[in-house]
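Complex record, two chains
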Amino acid sequence: MIIELLFMNGYAVYVMSAFGFTLFSFLGLYTITKLQFVKEQSKFVSKFESLNPEKANSAKTQRINKEILADATSN
Amino acid sequence: MFKILEPNKIFQITSKAPKYILFLFVVVLSVGLTEALILSPEDYKQSDAVRIMYVHVPSAWISLGIFSSITLLSVSGFIFKNKNFFLMAKSLAPSGFVFNIIALVTGAIWGKPTWGTWWAWDARVTSMLILALFFAMYLIAWRIYEKEEKVFKITTFITVVGIINVPITKYSVEWWNTLHQPASINILTKSSIHSSMLFPLLLMTAAFALFSLLIFLMKYNTELIKIKNKGLDRL
């Protein structure tokens, strides 16, 4: 039964390469997108840390900035 | 009018949503793969080669859907002078392009056992290749043009020209004699596909849609942080 399933009447090589290519593309796109996100997030954190307290406080008045920082520290 | 969609307001949702969508995607994909590779029946003509349909068809549907959405967002961005629409369109493009490539590659793999060739300059296949070229042009335009106004104009132009290809792709199998089979699923009339194959197909479509939503949100959040990074530079 398992051999039958794996053999797929001789079409296994086609079916598995189509599914494999799809899942490999998913993994690649996810990894690239995640890396880009993490890169921008760490750039934001390091820029924020280099601000003087007055500018940092001013930047923190924007809700989105606070959320980016909170999100970066929780990851 | 579109204040509810302002990045400052929706970041709280868009930053937290990816982890839940990733979880849902893994669950739906696992069930979908089990159905597609093990539980669904083989075709009486194509035998097990028909299983390629479960990755090929959803990919083609989603890439066409994404290109249409990108066009709608770009035109809306242009009409309503809303930068956020362009940002959303830009964030949708990578997954649309990847799904387009998956549809082409899995189509070629499916073509070998069924048509006897990896590639044919068939109307459906060629129009999907043209769609991939439009996706590529759109993505390249965002990379090479730095001025916002210019990139908004050029990307909108690309999508407006490219959208002409979408109905051509959809109806190519009806307008011309093609190697590609006609649509088995029709919303308005009765579908010719059996429910035992329709169910896994819809499950895989749901999984792929969740994946494109996941990539869209991650990319959109990245774009928002990029803008905020520029904002910090100006402080």
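Note: The mean pLDDT of chain A is 86.
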